[in-house]
Every structure is written in C-alpha cells, then in structure tokens.
Amino acid sequence: MPDGKTNFFSAFLNYMQPNMIKQYAKKYYVANDVTRFAVMIPYMAEKEQQDWLKKAKADKKNSFFTVLSDNLF
Question: Is residue 45 left, alpha or beta, with left meaning phi > 0 and alpha meaning psi from -120 to 50?
C-alpha cells in the first residue's frame, strides 16, 4: 500500500511538466522504486512507456516490466 509521501507525489504529478516526469521516472527506475515509478506511468506518453518497457526487459527488471506491460496491454 502506498505511503503518505507516495499519495502526495501522485497528486503532485498533475502539475508536473513532462520533462520533470521523465527525470523522476529515471530517478525511481535507478533506485528500484517500482511503487513510485508505477504511479507515474499514466502520465507518460505511450512511446515513452514502450521505451521503458524495452529498457526494463533488457535490464531484467521484472517488476518494472510487469507494471509497464499491465498498463500497455
């Protein structure tokens, strides 16, 4: 279950510029924070999601691959 910080971050995403979303997605991907990364997926363009899906597969990050797959398919 998401914590209070994740809930706040989720609400804050509505006001972020696309370049900030990309920066935070990268930050959470590198940190293996799949919970916060998953919150960001609906705010990404489909192409960006597909790029992350390919990267997650190549990096063998199954949890990221799964949440991205669930959203795309």
Answer: beta
pLDDT score of 7: 65
What's the pLDDT tens digit per position in 22-41? 999 999 999 999 998 998 99
* 50/4 Cα distance (integer angstroms): 29
Dist CA 71 CA 8 (whole Å): 22
Nearest of 18, 25, 30 to residue 71 by alpha carbon: 25
Tally of residues, the chain: 73
Q: Is 16 exposed, middle or buried (0-12, 13-18, 19+ CB in 10 A)?
A: middle
- The span from the CA of 73 to the CA of 17, in Å, is 26
pTM: 0.81
